[in-house]
Amino acid sequence: MSRLIGLLVAAACAAVSAAPASAMTIEKIVSPSGIAAWLVREQTVPLITLNYAFHGGSSQDPAGKSGTANLTADMLDEGAGDIDSKTFHERMENHGIELGFQVGRDEFHGSLRALNEHRDEAFELLRLALTAPRFDADAVERVRGQELSSLKRDTTNPNNIASNEWWAAAFPGHPYGLESKGTLETVPRIAADDMRDYVRRVFARNELTISVVGDVDAKTAGELIDRTFGALPAQNDLKPVANATPRGMGRRIVINLDVPQAVVNFGGLGLARNDPDFMAGYIVNHILGGGSFSSRLYREVREKRGLAYGVTDSLVWFKRAAVVLGGTATQADRTADALTIIEAETKRMAEEGPTPEELVAAKSFLKGSYALSLDTSAKIAAQLTQIQLDNLGIDYIQRRGALIDAVTIEDAKRVAKRLYSGGMLVTVAGRPKGLASTGTQ
Amino acid sequence: MTPLHKLSTKFSSPPTPSLNSNARCQWFAAAALVATTLAITSAAAEPLKISDFTLKNGLELVVIPDHRAPVVTHMIWYKVGSADETPGISGLAHFLEHLMFKGTAKNPTGHFSRVVATIGGQENAFTSNDYTAFYQRVPSEQLKTVMEFEADRMSGLQLTDAVVLPERNVILEEWNQRVGNNPRARLGEQIDAALFLNHPYGRPVIGWRQEMEQLNRDEALDFYRRFYGPNGAVVVIAGDVEPEQALKFAEETYGTAKRNDLIKPRHRPQEPPPVAVRSLTLADARVEQPFLQRTYLVPSFGTAQKGESEALEVLAHVLGSGSSSRLYRTLAVDKPVAVMAAAGYDSSALDMSKFTVYGSPRPGVALPQFEAEIDAVIADVIAKGVSADELERAKSRLIADATYAQDNQATMARWYGAALMTGASVQDVQRWPDRIRAVTAEQVQDAARKWLDKRRSVTGYLIKDTSPQVEKRS
């Protein structure tokens, strides 16, 4: 459960909690070679945080080789240029430098954190990782072994099973239906050349999003950016990803697994980030199952009945599709009860919408909580990157409060109907009593 | 002072003992874990001015400044954890933590949480062996509001079976989620139970399930009256508030609470000197990747002799933190017999603490062979010590983490709170980087020799149960 919840929370926080730390100034900078970035100067703590994204995540994996982008991410600190894996790690660790690489379905994300005194070394290591990764055979096999070990463990983990099955059923034949980590079948097939090809196609200067937070001025930041990213190709070479609508609404898939607690994923059609109804949908979903101890699902499933430790529901959006996805976990003989309540509450939200009081409280929460998502350099940098990826504009943080306020009760009711009337795709991993698979693809 | 190991895609960590009351705020726990170790000063950073007050009723207040964003993290830490439970009533400290959200005469069930949600705050709570903590993260101007609520539930908790019984189901579902569904967590419970022969640290924080099923309202209220009160609490406030203002608020809220004379210094049954090498095997049908975990009984910061706990921190780093560590280099890269191998040490415990080594063998490598390889790496450190490079790398990394911690007020609050709950002082925490800097290679080798003695340890194997499974339908 925690894995699932973690993912959902990450998705939710990534977008919606962007909001103004009043004192923060975001500067748009352009490096001498023409690479744009957003910069927040923050001089209190002597460190620098960089966050960046390339378009083209796991949806760029070659056919039959899902997991390529993910394995590539794992390999970037395993040696680059003239430096082997051992030396690369030692140079990072000698100075407490942190480089992170993560793969989403649409983007490849990276982060860097270093003390000011080790800034140049950190950016040099990043340059090497992005422009000259080695993919030495021994390191590839070692890291592949770690991925396979983790995938093997996932085969008996109800969280992974319920989640993978949900995505596979919602997006059959589409890259969004595939696990970013790949599978036990696909990961052994990935060759070093597949990873080199991924790097060549994805790591480029166009569609590159950069955010910098730290004790650094615009000129220095521009120089660091050029040194690090300037040698990348000017253009990426991405294969197109088709628009997709999640399928399987009304379907329930039960995957038999001998665990004491059944894990449930449930969800339906969501809202694109640029949909005019997005903010209304976000507020409505917060009221139904969003992140506070006051949501309807939390109250009905956990507080009143003790059916689960957690239950949540989030908007998740990609470039080519959007879903609303929730999760919970309950003991086998009460899974059906929990699901009945979740379905009834979702239906009630679709039919009646929120009350005016709920709308006021949710708006207040969403406005008030903004500052909490911008109180560390790492959070600010990640937030700025997400705002850029979502094309919300450099003034989004200032505008966000007004966007929330503008949602009326009529908007909320209309969008609730739109979001929750389409039925749900449900996956259950466990031995839920009295629940069987229903519906067809 | 709590060098929890770093999590990354390549290293998985054994479960940590602390439990959050709600799954939705797991990110907080994760964030705290990722920020390995913390401290206050570094070569480059200005020392932070930490204020430390004690009110007349015994409540301690620590204020950590961070004026970058208009928010505060407010935490109250009670000196009570699962190790303070009566034998036979395990899980009660954690259950009470959940029940603390059920309201008071003044603020009925859900009111506090609704107010926190309305002002855009975050809240949660967690329980460990040694402490129970509650926190809110709110806009600065709301600080006093949450202090008033928190002060109210310090003595005003009201419970009825109507709220207690569903919440008992919630913690049983939490058990399912954390333990029942997680073979590695089950292994960790078995190892702790075998490691601690006499000390209550051998009990799981969440409790033994058959005892959790019997927990009730009267036991919870009795426990509450024995352990909750201003003289058993430390309030930590990190964020955009001046110390004098925080003190004034504390006096106006917590300051009116009466001392609880039932609160006594904590003296738990201590461990006899360990004399037997212990090993155990847990077989579970769901295990797809064999796993080994060895835990040694070692001193915490509070029970160690001067410099010893710091040496153990550096030792854990050299031996098993990250890709350059001895265990990973030797076993996953050079040999290679491991998928991964790592080590960790938690210095924050009121009584003895644990040093843990863990890993997964490659396919085809049996666990006894894997264990022998781990033994060889440890024996080498004991015999030859650590190199100057390794020592410097570990110290640089640990001290850098101190600066990184300053970027996160919630991490700072959590670090100070945990330290103060387990016998350390504000000064101890502030001097942490200097204490790490002072560790010598000789001290690290001495610590390895003295504490990584197998007779002090339990080694657990997690293997796949291949016996025929009986069809179970619940």
Provide the descriptors you would attach to this structure in a database record.
heterodimer, A: 441 residues, alpha+beta, 6-stranded mixed beta sheet, 5-stranded mixed beta sheet, 15 helices, 42% helix, B: 474 residues, 7-stranded mixed beta sheet, 17 helices, disordered N terminus
Shape of chain B: globular
Classification by helices and strands of chain B: alpha+beta
**H/E topology pattern of chain B:** EHEEEHHEEHHHHHEHEEHHEEHHHHHHE
Strands of chain B, total number: 12
Reconstruct the topology from this structure.
The complex is a heterodimer of chains A (441) and B (474).
Chain A: H1 2-16, E1 27-30, E2 36-41, E3 47-55, H2 68-75, E4 79-80, E5 83-84, H3 85-94, E6 98-103, E7 107-115, H4 119-131, H5 137-154, H6 158-170, H7 192-202, E8 208-214, H8 218-229, E9 252-256, E10 261-269, H9 278-289, H10 296-303, E11 311-317, E12 322-331, H11 335-352, H12 356-368, H13 377-389, H14 396-405, H15 409-420, E13 425-430
Parallel strand pairs in A: 2-8, 9-13
Antiparallel strand pairs in A: 1-2, 3-7, 3-8, 4-5, 6-7, 10-12, 10-13, 11-12
Chain B: E1 19-20, H1 26-34, E2 51-54, E3 60-65, E4 71-78, H2 92-99, H3 111-118, E5 122-127, E6 132-139, H4 143-155, H5 161-180, H6 183-195, H7 209-212, H8 217-227, E7 233-239, H9 243-252, E8 278-284, E9 291-298, H10 308-320, H11 326-334, E10 338-345, E11 353-361, H12 367-384, H13 388-405, H14 409-421, H15 426-430, H16 432-437, H17 441-451, E12 457-464
Parallel strand pairs in B: 3-7, 8-12
Antiparallel strand pairs in B: 1-5, 2-3, 4-6, 4-7, 5-6, 9-11, 9-12, 10-11
Helix pairs in contact in B: 2-8, 4-9, 10-13, 10-17, 11-12, 12-17
